[in-house]
Amino acid sequence: MEEPARSPDGSEQCPQGREMMASSTGSTLCMSSSRSESVWTSSAPRSRWDIYRKPLVVVAVGVAVFLFGVVITSLACFLKEHKKVYKMSGPAFLSLGLMLLVCGLVWVPIIRKKQKQRQKSQFLQSLKSFFFNR
Fold first, then answer.
1. Alpha-carbon distance 8 to 103, whole Å?
2. I want to staple 5 with a disulfide (CB 3.0 to 4.6 A). Which of 13, 14, 76, 94 is the partner?
3. DSSP H helical ranges for 6-82
C-alpha cells in the first residue's frame, strides 16, 4: 500500500491521491489529481460576520471620518483662531468620510451578488458531476 506524500521536511502529509508541491515561500500545497477538488476553496459555510466584516468596518470608519469633518467644518464657523486650517481640513475630512461610506455601502450588494453566483456555480457543479460521473 502506498504511503501518503510528505512535504520536503516531513512535517506535513497529504491525503492519498494527492501530490505535494513546494513553493518558493517554503509552504507546501497538496495538489489533487482530480479536477473537481480544490484545496483553496473550502465548502464550510461562513457566518454573516465573516462575510460582511470588511464592508461594515469601511462604513463605520467612513461615518467616523465624515462626522469628524462635520465637527472640524463647524469649528471654522464658531472659532476665530485657526479659521483657515479648519476651512481647509474640514471639507477634506468630509469628502474622505463620504467616499469611504459610499465604498462600503456599494461593497455590500457586490458581495451579495457574488454569493448568489457562487451558489449557482455550486449547484451547476453538482448537476454536472451527477450526470457525467455515472
1. 44
2. 14
3. 48-78
Q: Is 102 helix (H, G, I), strand (E, B) or coil?
A: helix
Say which amino acid occupies 2.
Answer: E
Total-model pTM = 0.59
82 pLDDT tier (thresholds 50, 70, 90): confident
Contact 74, 87 (CB under 8 A): no
Residues 6+ apart with CB under 8 A from 43: 122
| Residues contacting 31, CB < 8 A, separation 6+ | 18, 19, 20, 21, 39
- Determine the pLDDT at residue 106: 96
3-class state of residue 10 by DSSP: coil
* Count of CB atoms situated within 10 Å of the CB of 86: 19
pLDDT value, residue 110: 93
**Helix 48-78 with 83-132: angle, nearest 10 deg:** 170
